[in-house]
Specification:
single chain; alpha/beta; Alpha-Beta Plaits; TIM Barrel; 2 domains; eight-stranded parallel barrel; six-stranded mixed β-sheet; 14 strands; about 20% strand
């Protein structure tokens, strides 16, 4: 091991973890390089400079203060060709309050992916220190705020997704909404496919639906879909806030930073992250990406209230152990996990057994295809929840 590389290795006992963010990678080499080589390519290349060409300005003092490094005792043996490596990224290189999460993601999974040494480079997990969480923290309603709004202190929430996804006029959507509310829905979510089409534009449908919601005694969280480019998303959010809407959701393709932007605009609106499409980066068969568990680590610090987490025994490929991990992370950060993708009444008991009652049971196809209509469909979900002990 050469002298320069040795400078980028530290034991966890040598590190003040409050001043670093720990990122665990799953790595393998294209060129018979070891984990030590790959790890230092990330640590050096994603902090002070070129892994193999030392700058004349690269001093020991600069390295000590600004360099990322391998935490050697948290990694697989570094002489292996593949395995796990934990890199500590110094907080001093990140202005989380102003640059948010997007710049940090550029640090941990950016230029390192350009290097041909890597056959695989995936982020398994991200451990944000209390210091980072404090810098990123934005006041939000969270689980407690949603429960307070609904006056539902202990049960899972009965959620419905409006179907068909597209093609309904605002008045037709309102008809469906009324039936879902009469059936006992706690939350109603528009599909992520619906944004702002001419036949059902956001302004008109939000006015019609919000006016109705504000006239009735039932409390319902209604999640308007506002997927769009950043400036338009912010404009839509401001429109909904002015109209008096209480919730929005955005899809994975809208990016991460936009969620913090919206939370800065309003501390009371309920905000949901809808994950469809995330397999582009989280699919386990991809050699380059971010695990869904790491995605949850990111979402948990963005000021959100609800995250689409997946489903067991539905039509997704989530495992029970994975969902337990995701849900625990979300619940710890006061984010409601939302389960959907094939949810039916018979799933409720198993969901509560494994995830406590801190979740939203979201059903779309089942509720809307019920032979007695969507009101009966959501009522059967509500009835299953009421039978929980």
């Amino acid at each position: 091991m050469n002298k320069r590389i040795r400078k980028f290795l530290k034991a966890s006992s040598q590190v003040d973890l409050e001043n670093y963010t720990l990122v665990e990678y799953d790595l393998s080499s294209n060129q018979k390089k070891t984990l030590l080589n790959l790890g230092t390519e990330i640590a050096i290349g994603q902090s002070v400079g070129n892994p193999y060409v030392k700058s004349s300005l690269e001093t020991d003092t600069l390295i000590e203060k600004y360099a990322a490094f391998i935490i050697s005792d948290l990694s697989d043996p570094l002489n292996r060709k593949s395995g796990k490596v934990t890199i500590a990224f110094p907080l001093i290189n990140s202005n989380f309050e102003e640059d948010g999460i997007n710049h940090f993601l550029c640090q941990i999974q950016g230029g390192n992916l350009d290097i041909n040494s890597f056959k695989k480079c995936r982020v398994n997990s991200i451990l944000f220190s209390k210091t980072v969480k404090r810098k990123l923290y934005l006041k939000k309603p969270g689980i407690d705020g949603i429960r307070s709004f609904l006056n539902n202190k202990k049960n899972p929430l009965a959620g419905a997704i409006i179907k068909p996804k597209i093609g309904l006029t605002p008045n037709k959507m309102l008809d469906v909404v009324k039936k879902l509310i009469d059936g006992g829905a706690d939350t109603i979510k528009e599909d992520e496919i619906l944004a702002n089409p001419s036949y059902c534009n956001l302004k008109k449908r939000s006015e019609i639906i919000t006016n109705y919601l504000n006239k009735i005694s039932n409390k319902v969280v209604y999640l308007f879909c506002i997927n769009s480019d950043p400036i338009q998303t912010i404009e839509k959010f401001k429109l909904l806030k002015k109209i008096g809407a209480n919730a929005v959701h955005l899809n994975y393709w809208c990016g991460f930073g936009i969620f913090r932007n919206l939370r800065k605009l309003d501390k009371k609106m309920f905000i949901m992250y809808q994950k469809s499409g995330e397999k582009i980066i989280t699919n386990k068969s991809h050699n380059f990406g971010i695990s869904f568990s790491a995605l949850v680590d990111i979402i948990s610090v963005l000021g959100l209230d609800i995250m689409h987490a997946g489903m067991i025994d539905g039509y997704t490929d989530d495992t029970l152990s994975e969902l337990k991990l995701y849900s625990k992370k979300l619940q710890t950060n006061k984010v409601f996990p939302s389960f959907s993708c094939g949810l039916r009444p018979e799933h409720i008991k198993k969901l509560s057994k494994n995830f406590t009652n801190e979740y939203i049971a979201n059903s779309g196809s089942y509720v809307n295809s019920h032979p007695d209509g969507p009101q009966a469909g959501i009522k059967s979900i509500v009835d299953a929840i009421s039978k929980l002990k």
